[in-house]
């Protein structure tokens, strides 16, 4: 179908194809309260059809009463709105050495959160048992039940086949290759379980929580490794095999003969990741073992540390200038342990991206430090679930099951 430019073509055509309650629900997801008459008018559906679909959505709890509209006389009509408190999401960020488990509502609001040290290298059963135990405890302490869970979203620090939720040869996750995360979790919580790579969910979380108007969005994580999450026209781009955005192993000009853990020479990650910057500073006799040591030195005003971080930013900027050429994002957000704390890193990135990218692509481009910070991944894990469970087909299936049951 060819859509006329300049019209709200997407919205109109979606409304035109409204055939189910799950579709009607999509209109209400913006949280705005509407009357039955307003919904009938904007959808072209008969008042009686709208009424029966609203009844079904009200019975599910997904839509709730939202006061009354103004009336010119007679009984004022009731208004309805999406009720994000209807169900809960368990949002999980499994890092290399940490674990964050949060409970959110369907709007992505974090209601409770636990953070603890956990080695992903302990293997899937040990880590997931901890996730399940933390989840149960969070629900109990919030006075909520497991049957209020709509789904569980899990971010893992390695490549994941999103469709099956199985990790694929993750380099820092011994024992996880091909592990059936979804089935394992569903033995305890029989709900929708969605799994993705941690950088993808950080992109989702950062964008949804802080840049919702920016559908062309790029998130780069700079920590022990370097990776990115691509959101294009509002959709996360995973690529054919789920490895889209793996820019840590792009070769950079300064790379020369620096050997990378992947076996190639001159990779971005071998120059600009936390451990790489720490290594370069040890060459000056400074006592640093990891990226956060470098950041501490830079914050204390150590000039060598500041210069090293800024140079890492320039190296990252070299790759991001290519990203800007290819994808034309309106926002680039820099996160991860190095990115979150790194004004100097972002300064180096800006320096190169604005110099090297085409003027049209950078005229409105913003390059920012992450606003979600260490919550980006759990916010994104929640998004992963809500985008699925609140989709037209899944809402429709849930309403049909409730009717049948
Ligand atoms: Zn490499």
How would you describe this protein?
The protein has 405 residues and is α/β, with parallel strands linked by helices. The chain has three domains: 9-85, Orthogonal Bundle (Arc Repressor Mutant, subunit A); 87-197 and 383-404, ATPase, nucleotide binding domain (Nucleotidyltransferase, domain 5), CATH 3.30.420; 204-376, ATPase, nucleotide binding domain (Nucleotidyltransferase, domain 5, 2-Layer Sandwich), CATH 3.30.420.40. Helices cover 43% and strands 20% of the residues. It contains 16 helices and 15 strands. It has helices at residues 9-16, 21-28, 36-43, 47-60, 124-141, 181-186, 198-210, 268-272, 274-282, 291-299, 303-327, 336-340, 343-356, 359-362, 376-389, 392-404; strands at 34-35, 63-68, 78-82, 88-94, 98-105, 110-117, 149-156, 160-161, 166-167, 192-197, 217-222, 226-232, 235-237, 331-335, 366-369. The strands form four sheets. Strands 6-5-4-7-10 form a five-stranded mixed beta sheet, sandwiched between helices. Strands 13-12-11-14-15 form a five-stranded mixed beta sheet, with helices on both faces. The protein has a three-stranded antiparallel beta sheet with strand order 1-3-2. The longest helix has 25 residues, at 303-327. It is globular. The two termini are 39 Å apart. Mean pLDDT is 90; it is low at 1-17. The structure holds zinc ion (ZN). Zinc ion is lined by residues 249, 260, 262, 264, 267, 269-270.
Q: Which descriptors would you attach to this protein?
A:
Nucleotidyltransferase, domain 5, 3 domains, alpha/beta, 405 residues, Arc Repressor Mutant, subunit A, globular, single chain, 5-stranded mixed β-sheet
């Amino acid at each position: 179908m060819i859509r006329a430019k300049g019209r709200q073509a997407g919205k109109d055509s979606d409304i035109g194809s409204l055939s189910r309650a799950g579709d009607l629900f999509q209109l209400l997801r913006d949280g705005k309260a509407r009357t039955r008459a307003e919904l009938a008018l904007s959808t072209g559906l008969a008042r009686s059809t709208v009424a029966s679909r609203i009844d079904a959505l009200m019975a599910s709890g997904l839509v709730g009463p939202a006061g009354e509209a103004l009336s010119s006389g007679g009984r004022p009509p009731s208004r309805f709105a999406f009720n994000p408190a209807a169900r809960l999401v368990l949002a999980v960020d499994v890092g290399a050495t940490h674990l964050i488990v949060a409970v959110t509502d369907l709007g992505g609001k974090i209601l409770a959160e636990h953070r603890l040290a956990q080695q992903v290298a302990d293997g899937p059963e040990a880590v997931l048992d901890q996730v399940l135990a933390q989840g149960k405890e969070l629900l109990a302490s919030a006075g909520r039940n497991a049957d209020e869970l709509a789904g569980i979203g899990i971010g893992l620090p390695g490549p994941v086949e999103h469709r099956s939720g199985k990790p694929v040869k993750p380099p820092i996750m011994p024992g996880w290759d091909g592990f059936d995360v979804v089935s394992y979790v569903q033995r305890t919580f029989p709900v929708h379980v969605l799994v993705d790579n941690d950088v993808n969910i950080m992109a989702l979380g950062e964008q949804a929580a802080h840049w919702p108007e920016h559908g062309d969005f790029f998130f780069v994580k700079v920590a022990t490794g370097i990776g990115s999450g691509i959101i294009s026209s509002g959709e996360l781009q995973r690529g054919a095999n789920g490895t889209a955005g793996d820019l840590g192993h792009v070769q950079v000009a300064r790379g020369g003969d620096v050997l990378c853990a992947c076996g190639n020479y001159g990779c971005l990650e071998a120059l600009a990741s936390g451990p790489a910057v720490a290594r370069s500073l040890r060459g000056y006799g400074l006592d640093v073992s990891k990226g956060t040591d470098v950041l501490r030195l830079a914050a204390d005003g150590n000039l060598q540390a500041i210069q090293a971080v800024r140079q890492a930013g320039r190296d990252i900027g070299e790759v991001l200038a290519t990203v800007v050429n290819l994808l034309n994002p309106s926002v680039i957000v820099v996160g991860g342990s190095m990115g979150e704390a790194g004004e100097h890193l972002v300064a180096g990135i800006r320096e190169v991206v604005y110099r090297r990218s085409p003027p049209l692509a950078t005229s409105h481009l913003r390059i920012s430090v992450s606003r979600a910070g260490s919550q980006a991944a759990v916010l994104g894990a929640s998004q992963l679930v809500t985008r699925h469970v609140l989709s037209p087909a899944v809402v429709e299936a849930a309403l049909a099951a409730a009717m049948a049951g």
